[in-house]
């Protein structure tokens, strides 16, 4: 058992560990944030440089193009190019070139070429054909080929320049071109004045040029740094030795064909930023550690008090002050044997709805107080585990079940005697409870819930758990049946069996399709009847699939037979579009739709009778006959029958089975027959089991008959192995 001193030591150790881990995590987090911040800042700078670079490139390119236009438009220049008059060219161009160089020292090329691309004059060197300049350039040749202007970067001898070309025409005939070259430095010279950065140029190079001059640095197998500061060169020679120097190469330098020849290299020395950030980070961490130490001291002093507080919060219901579900679970899983009484308030939801949540809470508190008083008086612990659910729990070694009948009586008397005055509504309310009792440990609550559910169903004030109230078996049955239904649907084992319906002479005039499931278990074939699987199918959403399967098979068979076929449908089936679409599709396969009888099984509380009536009228327009099934079963609505005016009324089998002995059944059957005849509707009697019932019903005037006396349901689809169902 822990002593207070040991608890304090553990608390101190835990607090110190938390402090150390927090400091490490804080340091790593701040370091990550600062690094991320620096990277984002470099990215922003690079984006800004890229925008400014492109803007200056566009603006200066246009300005220089205008200068070339001015030169080309000079009097006599086009003629001099056409005639290759070098002296004339020199006389015209030299003044222009000198003015250009005075304005912009970075202009280093001004070359004239003939129509076939041969260089005829270089203003930047004052060289002309007489100096044997008859070599053709291989850089921007499109001007000579396409006779129009082009702009773009060009690489020559591991250097780069920006070229602007202009076509020269004399007497509307292309005679040559002029090319202006300018160093890339011109476009970036102002950028490092705006940003504290270093700028260089990286150009593409072939593999054979890996070994370059000392002032040029190989970046990788594809690019060479041809212009740049010493920091940029050091970075690409040994990146690990320059950890505080960041480089970005996202700005492409493209030729006139939009092909990337290189990149603008942007370098940023972040050593100052890193130093500032680290100083700030250390100060922040120091402050954090100082604050954390203070918190550890406070935590160490008040840990036990807070532990008790949180323990109370975790295990206490905040509204009533009783112990909660968490506290109950802790007890139940201790392995001891307990008696558990679960109670909830009758129709508490209505109290909330009528009087509001505040009044409901007052009721919960008053009932909780009474449970607490009863618990203390009788040796129980009391709990509130959900909205209106209370638990009384007592540990017992030798449980005597009979004793608890008296305890439950007294508990109910106490609760029922409560007069709960609610000032908000100035009324006194009375409540009643249901209770369920169980005698177990881990499963006590689950078993008590089963008992209380059964008590409600039987309108009993309380009930003890037993195997009879255990709903687990029912749940297992439902799950098992759902699995069987799905398997049957997947394997075409949902099939219709057909029971004959005869006229008054015993001649078969129609068949009723009755759904069955064929299930194979342990190699044996079992037939499952609707009463066993239809309720599960309806609740689990599988009913429509079952109904569609039966419709398809039954109507497919009887489209080729002479007898009528009767199909059972629930009223709400008419509201399911997919099922009705399938039915309409199948009706279309019948030459005589009057061979189809739709039997509507009576249900209590049809959702929308007018909608049902409209659907029935639509099917009748198609020629289909309508029957009302189970008429007289207790839910018959004569007003609805009068409105539908069906072709058949099927008298419920519960009236037919005992008609020979039951005088009331005889009266009801005769009444139904008279009612049907007045409507000019035929009657069908179900459950005709013997000749005596048959003869009596004929005497009453029944038109058609169905029952074991005439035949049991058969598998007509697999006729080679017809099976009669007993």
Automatic annotation (TrEMBL):
Pfam families per the UniProt record, alphabetical: dCache_3 (PF14827), EAL (PF00563), GGDEF (PF00990)
Membrane-crossing segments per the record: 12-30, 280-299
All residue ranges annotated as the EAL domain in the record: 478-726
Domain of life: Bacteria
Domain GGDEF: 336-468
GO MF annotations in UniProt: cyclic-guanylate-specific phosphodiesterase activity
Record flagged with keyword Transcription regulation: no
Keywords, ordered alphabetically: Membrane, Transmembrane, Transmembrane helix
PANTHER family associated with the record: CYCLIC DI-GMP PHOSPHODIESTERASE PDED-RELATED, CYCLIC DI-GMP PHOSPHODIESTERASE PDEF
Protein name per UniProt: Diguanylate cyclase
